[in-house]
Design brief:
alpha/beta, D-Maltodextrin-Binding Protein, domain 2, 2 domains, eight-stranded mixed sheet, five-stranded mixed sheet, globular
């Protein structure tokens, strides 16, 4: 498998996804915390390991999270045989977990709360994961991986969604989200946009700063007028879009052949382009801040191989392996000691792994719910509304 992280085809298994999404309509949590307000998840017992390894481990993962380089040593050490299914999108991942076939899932923040709300994942006993003590505290007990202080998984890593641009075609160098939401006419038809409803949050973040009168406090908590403003901005942007990219590999290819000249994407795309000789490609974090993602290893509520599952949780988040995975997929590792284990001594500096100020204004993906995540009411646009709006935007 090639590096390049997650894929984003929003059409995959949409019907199953919609059923799962409906269950989070009553969820609520304060910004950045694990508190869930009125949200009470189904009473799923805490997953606990046994004394004997079962011999098998079934997981649904992002591309790059279950590569032979670290799966084979794990199997040799534990006797647990890994069976990994690569997910094509967060929505597909949610549907896969609902099948009941898997023990573990490597969920992003735009999926994890949905699975908690639907009872498809279980609380995790972090005391049974020794390497949890080394996990960056800024990723623990957050609204996408815990409820009322109860952890539902172990953080894997994180990344920011930054501006990517061709220095030869975009001048001056962009510094604001305005460069993609009010683009210069010279880039019309060459704008790169992630093909996912969660991209609505990027527009909301821009409006939070450019139109403060809208009163947006959280790009995932949008009241009707705020949501309509974000959709209107994306609808206006549509004419300049050259590519709605479904995967980082697609975005990288579009920049490489010169079809795209500016957009929002991941640092791993820039790294890949620069390594392949495209010195004209650069990246910048917007002055408004950025959206971002943090992935969490979660145990399903139907897991049949819990001992192997817990062995994997501890193994994959160990400093050495967490460093290997982070370098392979392109993310800042969650283990605070992983940066001393990377093959590239400058890797963590590139991904700002040890720079708290960099992450201070990164708004991590979270599932939008009717009960506003920022605690401002119960009339916010829920994820099904985001999906419907996104499909309308692309059809313009």
């Amino acid at each position: 498998m090639s590096p390049g992280r997650r894929y984003g085809s929003i059409t995959a298994r949409l019907a199953a996804m919609a059923a799962a999404v409906a269950l989070v309509a009553g969820c609520s949590s304060g910004p950045g915390s694990g508190a869930a307000g009125a949200f009470a998840p189904p009473p799923v017992p805490m997953a606990e390991p046994g004394a004997v390894s079962e011999g098998d481990l079934y997981m649904v993962v992002w591309d790059g999270y279950a590569e032979p380089q670290w799966v084979q040593p794990f199997q040799q050490q534990t006797g647990c045989t890994v069976h990994a299914q690569i997910a094509g999108s967060s929505d597909e991942m949610v549907a896969d977990v609902k099948s009941g076939r898997y023990d573990l899932v490597s969920a992003s923040g735009d999926a994890s709360l949905r699975m908690i709300a639907s009872g498809d994942v279980a609380p995790v006993d972090v005391s049974k994961v020794p390497n949890y003590a080394q996990i960056n505290s800024t990723l623990e007990n957050k609204r996408w991986n815990s409820v009322n202080g109860v952890p539902y998984g172990i953080p894997q890593g994180r990344g920011a969604n930054v501006l990517i641009y061709n220095k030869d075609k975009v001048s001056p160098a962009p510094t604001s989200l305005g460069s993609v939401f009010n683009p210069d006419p010279s880039v019309a038809g060459h704008l790169s946009v992630y093909d996912s409803p969660i991209s609505i949050a990027d527009a909301a973040l821009y409006l939070m700063h450019s139109q403060p009168s809208l009163g947006i406090k959280d790009p995932y908590s949008l009241h009707p007028a705020q949501f309509q403003a974000a959709v209107a901005l994306l609808t206006k942007q549509r004419a300049a879009v050259g590519d709605y990219w479904p995967s980082s590999a697609n975005q990288q290819a579009a920049f490489a052949k010169g079809a795209d000249s500016i957009g929002i994407g991941w640092q791993v795309v820039v790294n890949g382009l620069q390594k392949s000789g495209h010195a004209d490609i650069a990246t910048a974090k917007p002055v408004e801040g950025s959206t971002g993602w943090s992935d969490t290893w979660m145990v399903t509520s139907t897991a049949k191989n819990l001992t192997c599952a817990y062995k994997w949780l501890d193994y994959i988040t160990s400093a050495q392996v967490n460093a290997q995975v982070a370098e392979y997929v392109g993310e800042a590792p969650a283990n605070t000691r992983a940066c001393t284990k990377t093959a590239d001594p400058g890797f963590c500096a590139t991904y700002h792994a040890d720079d708290p100020s960099y992450w201070a204004n990164v708004y991590y993906w979270a599932t939008p719910t009717a009960h506003c995540l920022d605690g401002t009411g119960d009339d916010c646009a829920s994820y099904p509304q985001w999906v419907a709006a996104w499909n309308r935007i692309k059809q313009q």
